[in-house]
Amino acid sequence: MTLSRVRGVLVGAMALSLAVPPWVPAAETKEAPVKEEKAEKKVMVKGNEGVKSLQEALKAKGEEPGPIDGVIGKKTRTALGAFQNANDLKVTGRLNDQTTEKLGVEKRKLLRDAIFPRFDFQEMAKRSLGAEWRSRSFQDQTEFVKLFADFLEKTYVGKIASYSNYTGESIDEPYAEVHSKLLTAKGEEIKINYMLHQVKSEWKVYDLVVGDVSLVNNYRSQFSRVISKSSYEELVRRITQKLEESVGKLGRSD
User: Fold this and answer.
1) Is the dihedral of CA 140, 145, 146, 148 positive or negative?
2) CB neighbour list of residue 43: distance below 8 Å, 6 or more residues apart
3) pLDDT, mean of residues 71-96
4) How much is the average pLDDT of 158-168?
5) Which region holds residue 88: left if phi is over 0, alpha if psi is between -120 and 50, else beta?
6) Is the pLDDT of residue 42 over 90?
7) Quick one: pLDDT at residue 221?
8) Cβ(107)–Cβ(95) below 8 Å
9) Ramachandran region of residue 172, left (φ > 0), alpha (ψ -120 to 50) or beta?
């Protein structure tokens, strides 16, 4: 498995936030090798629904994003920059709040469609529940995976989609680790490591290490405490409540 293949795994997760693949150094951005463009397309050959929505929106505004194929290529990047320029927006090449507002698209949906196919939520949920996972019925497991994925969307999707710089990776098949640095809205820099494993022929994220804290390990500790002191049903109730509260906050901020 080549390094470019692993790097390409996260294109779908970051392509809507960056106009160029996150591993391309700033000094090389304008002259990205053709082979990198091909590698990007190879990874995203099936197309991404979030990117397709972006391409359709750009086309409706009179830009030329190229084929509506769900692949962030040169034409789509150029169209995004041209749209920003034509609408007196700062030409960042990124799908920021001002750009999505002008395009008339829902950023959160675009980001979800771009990011979530790259995550193995069943594996994340399984690891987060620990030993409790094995004692649950198939129906319980299925329902918990959906609940856990919804919860992560509401609490992490915006942060994951923020500007990230690729800083390196390591591979020990069937596992890999992609390193990046995230710049928050306050200008703070946070290390984020994407932990991946191979699922059939694809690399999928099964954990995020933010700073030095594993998201999965952190949740496993919290979930275990709730279950040991109360019950699995109480854990589900609490997550559901947190999810409802986060939805309420989003509604009030819109």
Assistant:
1) positive
2) 5, 8, 9, 11, 12
3) 85
4) 61
5) left
6) no
7) 96
8) yes
9) beta
